Amino acid sequence: MLESLSFFYEIASGLLAELFAMALEFKMKIIFFGDIVGRPGREALAKIISQLRKEFKPDLIVANGENLAHGKGITKKSFEEVIGAGVDLVTSGDHIWAQKEVIGLLEDKDIPLLRPANYPPSLPGNGYKILEIGARRVLVINLMGRVFFNQNLDCPFRKADEILEEFKEKADVVIVDFHAEATSEKKALGCYLDGRVSAILGTHTHVPTSDGQILPEGTAYISDVGMVGVKNSILGAKKEVALHHFLTQMPFKYEIAEDNLVEANGVFIEIDTSTGKALKIENIQRLINYSDSGLS
């Protein structure tokens, strides 16, 4: 009798282990970092990324890099730094054209760099990319808002429709970086795409919001992920320079703040790859102190 019970126990344990393994196969874990601002942001990311890998065990790491080089745009060197640190794909926004050498990066289709998809199609680069993670396919889309921006871009809502139609049933997971100023426009796109994409992650304002949520039809949403940049600053820039602009209304040159304390903001998302629906979204907010290289 005991031998029979032991036999059935072993079978049951094996089945449970297989079911657990199958459940893990249908889960995808993603870390997305907000706008990385200049050298402090790049170096902070390099310091923290290995710790976050151990903690969250992500299958994919994406970051917005439009402020990588001196706070505006992307250079080959700054791009290679974040890729070397462990980022799998870099998205961007309105400063994508600020550095001339980005053209060469965008023209190389093998380089994991996106520019907003709703720029005119004749421009270099792509606004979306399929990544193969094991047996699963992840579609990452980069869009830019139009409210409060000077650029005359195509409609991000219709561009999203167009891309989703092109990749219908060809992706297990769909992530959207919506680089936009207005929270209303971001939430509107979230509602518009709810249930059709896995996550809509707002970037651009550099300020992390506390509205991370899973929308009614299963899409993870947050208005803004925040930034990876100096904490004692104004959006990663020197306070004195920004304050002078507001007090005098004179033009100013963006200067990166320099301080020991850097904040790294991002989100962690879990997605059911069998449905493409989000299971979890949570803020990541860490401080990196350069004086002792400690993390908190």
Largest sheet: 8 strands, mixed
Q: Could you say which overall geometry the principal axes of the C-alpha atoms support?
A: globular
Reading the helices and strands in chain order gives HEEHEHEHEEHEHEEEEHEEE
Distinct helical segment count: 7
Give me the CATH architecture, please: 4-Layer Sandwich
Number of domains: 1
> Which fold name is given in CATH as the topology?
Purple Acid Phosphatase, chain A, domain 2
**Percentage of β-strand residues:** 25-35%
CATH class membership: Alpha Beta
Full CATH superfamily name: Metallo-dependent phosphatases
Distance between the termini: 55 Å
Q: Unreliable runs, pLDDT <50, ≥5 residues? A: none
Secondary-structure-derived class = alpha/beta
Rounded Rg:
21 Å
Indicate the mean pLDDT.
92
Oligomer: single chain
Helix content: 25-40%
Q: How many β-strand runs?
A: 14
